[in-house]
Amino acid sequence: MSPIVDRLVEELRANPEKRAKLARLLALDIAAEESLRTLLLEALLREAVTKRDLKELEDRMEKRLDGIERRIDSVERRIKKLEEKISSVEERIVSIFKWMIGLLVTIWLTLLALLLPVIIKLGLAG
Fold first, then answer.
1. Is residue 74 part of a domain?
2. What is the number of structural domains in the chain?
3. How does DSSP assign 82-112, residue by residue?
4. Does residue 126 carry a pLDDT above 70?
């Protein structure tokens, strides 16, 4: 850049009031000149979001949500299977516990049946 342009840029950076004044003058020139307006509008339109852009975004979001919903459904099915397995294990534990109680009662009754005559004989003999 030329020294004059460099000084102008430095002056505009240093002085917000002058920068605002220049911006207003340029805005008026842009508004008055059709080719400048067209150029500015074309630049703005390139950056603007269109309905088609929004529709594409919506479609992508729906696809992602569908994928997430499928994964959630899969996780829910696996959780249900785990709950069923846990329930089955609980039932088996309860059944085994009942068998153990039955066996312990049987052992104690057998011991009592075997020892009772001995205790009675010792009690009568003693």
1. no
2. 1
3. HHHHHHHHHHHHHHHHHHHHHHHHHHHHHHH
4. no
Please indicate, yes or no, if residue 5 is contained in any of the structural domains. yes
Q: How many residues does the chain have?
A: 126
Give pLDDT tens digits for 37-68. 888 888 888 878 888 889 999 999 999 999 99
* pLDDT at residue 33 is higher than 90: no
Decide if 82 contacts 74 (C-beta within 8 A): no
Asked whether residue 4 is domain-assigned, the answer is yes
Range of the domain at 21: 1-48
| DSSP assignment letter at 44 | H
Compute the distance between CA of residue 122 and CA of residue 126 in angstroms, rounded to an integer: 6
CA-to-CA distance for 8 and 14, rounded, in angstroms?
A: 10
